[in-house]
Amino acid sequence: MTKFWVVTRQVYLKNLRSGTFLWMVLSPLVIALIGGIIGYFFATGQETPKIAVISDRTAYQIVTPTKKAANGVQVNLNDPSNKKYQVDRKITTLTAAKKALRQEKIAGYLTLKQAQQRLTATYVSRDNSPQLDTKVLSEVLTNQHMLVTATQLQLSQAELTRLLQPVTVQHRTVSFTQGKQENRSNAQQAANGSLAMAITVIILLFIMSYAGMIAQEIGAEKGSRIMEIVLSSVSATTQFFGKISGMLGLVITQLLIYGVFGAVGYIFVHHYAFAQAFLNQLDLQQLFSGPILFTILFAFLAICLYTVLAAMLASLVSRQEQIQQAITPLTALGFLGYMGGFLAMGNNNSPVVAISSYIPFVSQNVMTVRYAMGNVTAGPAYLSLGITLVTLIGFTFLALQLYRANVLVYSDAGVFKSLRKSIRILIAERHSK
Fold first, then answer.
1. Half-sphere exposure of 205 (CA within 13 A, CB side)
2. Per-domain residue ranges of the chain
């Protein structure tokens, strides 16, 4: 047991001090920081479109803010409190509006005409101007036209209020747990969607990084021909499990680092208004007791599975240059799961998504996304987790046998030929017993 911990410690410390591990830890934090900064400046730096309003006399009486409409309701097309656009009141003619548009002093101009008791509007903008949703203008003009029409028809206050009463659509999201309906907030659903998108990327980065590290670790030792010396004092079994446990120690370390950064970040930002508004809409207890904990557990098992597979494939190489060839199938499986995760976000109920939720090596992305989005209950999710655990145990046993059989074998036959040869030898040995 002492030799096992010596190997574990040596692998752990060697990789902990490496630049690869440092970049692996910092790169997601740097990417998140850059994304947050870009999003902040994008949100705060958007220019409010400035427009001009050109109208004939009749239309002007509808949209002007200088007089009140029926029952004291003020027309608000030119309302300075509006945040979606600004109106340049100095521009009152079409010629001046075209000149200002050409000189890029305004984003566009709105022309209004009243004919046969019908108000028509045309908005002209530059192709490189700040975008203005014309639905905003349409809504304002429709409301004001309705107010003026109500005045002309001499509607009472009660009739006008009834006419302008909007239809409210309430959106309620529900989920089903063991056949029982449960209410879920829309903000929570949006947060789970963001979580699902992050899951597919993070799991891919983790499994590819640690699988590559263990493959390089074993491949470097085989390429340097020092395994004969190492195995004279440490058994192949101890060496195999020591390397695997050292890598898992790095995984736990990285997760703890992210936990510390997350706690510190929460302490610094939770008192800001935007953070409080976001957090108040989330059910943190539901989030941390369900999707996040399940994702962490599933991701950990997936990392173990890919690490074991990488160790098995790396034991088949004779030179370090063959490492990339050896882990090519592993990389393909990782990207297959990655694409499956995005497919699950867009089409949760397709047979392909449902079946791949239970297939090891890809289910770590597909099932975690489906569970985070609330498309499956805890029962199927943990069934998929159990299948992955059983697969991990089986692959660990197979990988150990192949590692012990090939750790001192140096062949130029190629990785896949060596794999087929090793499997045939193992089968023959088992039949001979």
1. 17
2. 50-163, 185-432
Distance of CA 142 to the CA centre of its chain: 39
Residue 228, Cβ density class (10 Å: 0-12 exposed, 13-18 middle, ≥19 buried): exposed
- Cβ atoms of 105 and 87 closer than 8 Å: no
pLDDT at 385: 93
181, two tokens = 């309906």
Burial class of residue 331 (count of CB atoms within 10 Å of its CB; 0-12, 13-18, 19+): middle
Angle at 248 between CA 247 and CA 251, to 5 degrees: 95
- Predicted confidence band at 195 (pLDDT cuts at 50, 70, 90)? low
Q: Is 168 exposed, middle or buried (0-12, 13-18, 19+ CB in 10 A)?
A: exposed
Selection from 425, 426, 424, 422 nearest residue 414 by Cα: 422
pLDDT in tens, 80-123: 555 677 778 788 888 888 888 888 888 888 888 777 667 778 88
For tokens 């870009």, what's the residue? 38
- Residue 129 and residue 46 in contact, taking contact as beta carbons nearer than 8 Å: no
pLDDT digits (tens, 9 = 90+) for 137-162: 777 777 777 776 777 777 776 777 77
Tokens (6 digits) for 197: 């998108």
Could you give the CA distance from residue 87 to residue 110 in angstroms, rounded to a whole number?
A: 10
| Residues 64, 102 contacting (CB under 8 angstroms) | no
